[in-house]
Amino acid sequence: MRMHFLSGGRLQMRKRAYYPDAERSEIFELPVSCALIRHPQANVLFDTGCSPRAAAETDAYWGHLAKVMTPVHAPDAIVLDQLPKAGLVAEDIDLVVCSHLHTDHCGCNSFFKRATVVCSAAELKAAPADTSGAYIAEDWEAARSFDTFSGHKDLFGDGRVSLIEAPGHTAGMVVGHVVLDTQAFVLASDAAPVRATLEQRYAPKGTWNDELFLKALDEIARLEREGAQVIFGHDEAQWRELRTGAAYYD
């Protein structure tokens, strides 16, 4: 079994969104991280990142959300164009796991027409009712059907790829726990978007429920103490250090 980290796009935001002590006027860039897991039974894509329309038609597609976060990636820095670096194309993906249904994490879902889409039941229920702009129905309604779960889901029954509900950032946030032969990983997505949130224990701006977010951080910290490497959803410094694209972990 092996795992590739693939670019799902790149965003520009006010730094205070994730770093409360930053100056109000400070702007920074951040990656959108996706993970491809090559399990013996299936090819799994954890999050699909930004839609190709996000950069090409930002205002029309993202509306007022574009005032909060702006796509700044090259056209080929989305997961559809990154998959061939790992030797695959969209039709090779068997399972798409949605950490949550915000547009920068499920924007390419519609391109994986053969895949089963896995999402927490709570997230699928919350998305239609949210008016923040971070949920764009076109992204997630494209799935013919969802394989939903609550609590915990072992994708293959062997403990190698598990999904854990970790509400806080959204009502149905999910993190992944991946156990490779040489090491384990926590795919934290926005349950811990940058390293500082875990180390300093705070909920970033825009968190759905601060108390639950901090509880989810406790679970992520527990897995880290047990030896797992936490992969933060939008941490620029970590992204630069990771093996990405054709390189992989096994």
User: What is the CA–CA distance across the termini?
Assistant: 6 Å
CATH architecture descriptor name: 4-Layer Sandwich
Number of strands: 12
Q: List unreliable stretches of 5+ residues.
A: none
**Strand arrangement, major sheet:** 4-1-2-3-5-6-7
CATH class: Alpha Beta
> What share of residues are in beta strands?
25-35%
Give a short account of the largest sheet.
7 strands, mixed
**Tally of domains:** 1
Whole-number mean pLDDT: 95
Number of helices: 9
In N-to-C order, the SSE pattern is: EEEHHEHEHEHHEEEEEHHEH
| Overall outline | globular
* CATH homologous superfamily designation: Ribonuclease Z/Hydroxyacylglutathione hydrolase-like
Kindly report the CATH topology. Metallo-beta-lactamase, Chain A
Structural class: alpha/beta
Query: What's the helical proportion of residues?
Result: 10-25%
Radius of gyration: 16 Å
What does this protein structure show overall?
The chain is an alpha/beta fold. The protein is 22% helix and 28% strand. The protein contains nine helices and twelve strands. The strands form two sheets. A seven-stranded mixed β-sheet has the order 4-1-2-3-5-6-7. Strands 8-9-10-11-12 form a five-stranded mixed β-sheet, covered by helices on one side. The mean pLDDT is 95.
